Amino acid sequence: MATNYKNIRFEVERGVATLTLNRPERLNSFTAAMHADVRHALARVEAGVTAEPTVRCLVITGAGRGFCAGQDLNDRAVGAGAEPVDLGRTIDTLYKPLVLKLQRLPIPVIAAVNGVAAGAGANLALVCDLVFAARSANFLQAFAKIGLVPDCGGTWFLPRLVGHARALGLALLAEKLPAAEAEAWGLIWKCVDDAELMPTVRRVAEQLAGGPTRAYARAKAAIHAAGGLSLEGSLDLERDFQRELGASHDYREGVAAFIEKRVAKFTGE
Fold first, then answer.
1. d(CA 8, CA 97)
2. Number of domain units in the chain
3. Phi and psi (nearest 5°) for 177?
4. What does each C-alpha distance from 157 to 103, 150, 164, 211 come to in angstroms?
5. Model's pTM, two decimal places?
6. SS3 for the chain, per residue?
7. Residue 192 lies in a domain
8. Cα distance between residue 104 and residue 146, in whole Å
9. What does the alpha-carbon distance between residue 259 and residue 263 come to, in Å, rounded to a whole number?
10. What is the pLDDT along the chain (269 residues), one digit of tens a residue?
11. Are residue 205 and residue 239 in the same domain, yes or no?
């Protein structure tokens, strides 16, 4: 299944939805129009979780030589002498809904970072559950260069992923972080050779699309909630999720496959 959009490409194959940001001449930087296309595609992903064709994993990547350079500043009248722009409204209407939608999707979300990931583009990748990056890619918290703070969830994700000191260094100095170093810091899951990026991501995405989807969703929810819970609260949440999943088809199938020494055939139910 493929759908025509102006600013993105979107297709579903073998349970994997692939959303490609497609403004390569602008390093896939965001405009309001691209936000609208992404919003529409994500609504289709959400609907496809329980419809046909079933969507059980989402991959986000960029066309051309970059993943996403953040906000396209040419999309607004911003500059010397221009009237002030309400950037808070931009956050409320565009970026905040995007971040929350991605984090709350009940399926695994993979970012395939194929080049520069800057500003909101860098943090868009960090919203995803797994981040694979080409060795030539880099991450840049570019906000300080234009007098802003990290957005698109950056101030929330960065200290949790790399710690207070490194988060401040990335935010204040606005220096490029190569993919290999991002992996070493724990900012991303894995750095791979450029030619291996999409084959690796496709292989992992198909593996996840064939896995226990409800268990993945509950694992995501539990890990996201853990930062605001006590140990006892996390234990209680684990209890509730295990109670639910213990009655699922996939749990019964997983146990049966283990006992019978065969590969489990999960349906996501």
1. 18
2. 2
3. -110, 110
4. 12, 10, 11, 26
5. 0.94
6. CEEECCCEEEEEECCEEEEEECCHHHCCCECHHHHHHHHHHHHHHHHHCCCCCCCCEEEEEECCCEEECCECHHHCCCCCCCCCCCHHHHHHHHHHHHHHHHHHCCCCEEEEECCEEECHHHHHHHHCCEEEEECCCEEECHHHHHCCCCCCCHHHHHHHHHCHHHHHHHHHHCCCEEHHHHHHHCCCCEEECHHHHHHHHHHHHHHHHCCCHHHHHHHHHHHHHHCCCCHHHHHHHHHHHHHHHCCCHHHHHHHHHHHHCCCCCCCCC
7. yes
8. 30
9. 10
10. 556 899 999 999 999 999 999 999 999 999 999 999 999 999 999 988 877 668 999 999 999 999 999 999 988 644 445 677 889 999 999 999 999 999 999 999 999 999 999 999 999 999 999 999 999 999 999 999 999 999 999 999 999 999 999 999 999 999 999 999 999 999 999 999 999 999 999 999 999 999 999 999 999 999 999 999 999 999 999 999 999 999 999 999 999 999 999 999 999 88
11. no
65 and 86 part of one domain = yes
Strands 2-4 and 16-21: unpaired
Provide the domain limits for residue 198.
Answer: 2-209
Q: What is the domain-level CATH number for residue 181?
A: 3.90.226.10
Looking at the structure, tell me whether residues 108 and 176 fall in a common domain: yes
Domain check: are 155 and 231 in the same one? no
- Separation CA 193–CA 225 (nearest Å): 33
What is d(CA 102, CA 91) in angstroms, rounded to the nearest whole number?
A: 15
